Amino acid sequence: MIAVRDIQKRFGRVPAVRDVSFTLEPGQVVGLLGANGAGKTTTIRMITGYLLPDAGSVRVGGIDLATDPVAARRRLGYLPESAPVYPEMSVADYLRFRASLHAMQRREARAAIARVLDRCLISDAARRRIGHLSKGYRQRVGLAGALLHDPPVLVLDEPTDGLDPAQVRQVRELIRDLGRTRTILVSSHIVPEVEKTCDRVLIMAAGRIRVDARPADLIAARGRGPYVLEVRRAPGGIDPRAAASQVVGVAEVRVAPVGSGAGEWLSLRLRPRDDAPDLREAIACAMASAGLTVRELRREEPGLERVVLDLLDAGEDEPGATSPQAAARDRSAQPAEGPA
Question: Which domains does the chain have, with CATH numbers?
Fold first, then answer.
């Protein structure tokens, strides 16, 4: 439903997006991640037609956005990071206005407005002025506007921005439900949200797609995390570090006091060798044989957030990586988005 081929965009001498290509299929919810200045927003604005690429092409539902932008946009719903709504309008009036932009007949518009009010959980605010609503409600009004014409493709930039935890959960469930029959691209800086919502993740750095993979595959490729223990300090007894180092398969042991100061409990982090089996039983036996009391023993599981941070840290060292100053020029050079 979305086919991006070798798109490029520069602002002056600053390369914001460089040779980005990817394809999103129906039924996929895909997350777009990256640090500030990575090129995410510029990429989204080219996909949605707010910016024209300097090179390359974007097709939405098989239609080239450059040659037939009106037909392509009919297949696409877009929610920018800050929902572009008119504060002086009521929610219902705003949605009626959006319906008129899509040339909906009155009966069709009424049905569509009722549908999105219900789906976005804002029926109770239909008669209220948008300017009197909380940021979270305004965000959901923007999402309702993006859904109004029932597009097969949705592009959502920070869709949970400003929502409370209960609303975040509701919007997350809504996105996954919508993703059963639509193609959805979600840009977010909240990695756990992407991990819980998306089937696939694109990671951008320095204007390029560095990673295109399923979150579970990224985590699995990183390997399992270290073992974490808390043991009681034994005055005059066996050193916990020495006891842990004797376990076959342990490559490194780090020891730190639990809490501040030199208390009676120590925290141990045991990094296993890459080829080591599950060492929990061996570690427990080694601690017991040494006469050490263990009150915690667990394996630290790497999450997507840690994987993404490591990938982005690696990307920042590459030649041509976008600096914070260049990122600021990137943002200031882009046109503002209107409510319609």
Answer: 2-75+151-220+305-333 (3.40.50.300), 224-299 (3.30.70.1320)
Spell out the residues 6+ positions from residue 269 whose beta carbon is closer than 8 angstroms to its own: 226, 227, 228, 253, 254, 256, 300
Where does residue 258 rank: exposed (0-12), middle (13-18), buried (19+ CB within 10 A)? middle
CA angle 139, 141, 144 (to 5 degrees): 115
Give the predicted TM-score (pTM) of the model. Answer: 0.75
Query: And the tokens for 7?
Result: 């798109």
Q: What are phi and psi of 171, to 5 degrees?
A: -70, -35
- Sort 333 into a burial class: Cβ within 10 Å, 0-12 / 13-18 / 19+: middle
Q: CB under 8 Å to 36, separation ≥6 — which residues?
A: 189, 324, 327
Question: How many Å apart are CA 130 and CA 191, to the nearest integer?
Answer: 29
User: In this structure, what DSSP letter does residue 266 have?
Assistant: E
pLDDT tens, position by position, 257-314: 887 656 688 999 999 998 899 999 999 999 999 989 999 999 987 778 777 777 766 5
